[in-house]
Write a structure and sequence with these properties.
49% of the residues lie in helices and 15% in strands. With 109 residues, it is α/β, with parallel strands linked by helices. A three-stranded parallel β-sheet has the order 1-2-3. Helix 3 runs parallel beside helix 5 (82-94).
Length: 109
């Protein structure tokens, strides 16, 4: 609830994952992504690299855009490569100056 409220208050992107296959999770993410990105239809993310790249490319104002992936453990259990894909994106963003995204990946314990 707090992450969702924080994203709403700051104009950030929020996605709550559910258990499922990687394909189902990518489809769910694209359904949340398309209205946020003001797209007429949900894109077909074929893999996590494409999805994370699309999230990182969301337009921002002067401050970094908060991107929250809630229930991250569900995503990683279906797609173990996701953690590495996200780490690569974070590393690449660290070498660039500018607005970019502030990532938050949360999981219940």
């Amino acid at each position: 609830m707090l992450l969702r409220a924080l994203c709403a208050a700051t104009g950030g992107f929020y996605h709550q994952a559910v258990e499922g296959t990687a394909a189902e999770q990518l489809r769910d993410l694209s359904e949340d992504y398309s209205p946020f990105a003001r797209l007429p239809a949900a894109p077909a993310f074929g893999d996590w690299r494409t999805a994370i790249t699309a999230l990182a490319a969301l337009p921002t104002d002067e401050q970094p855009l908060l991107v929250a992936l809630d229930e991250f453990s569900y995503l990683v259990s279906a797609a173990p490569e996701l953690a590495s894909v996200l780490q690569r994106q974070l590393d690449a963003a660290g070498h660039k100056r500018g607005r970019g995204c502030a990532w938050c990946c949360a999981a219940r314990r």
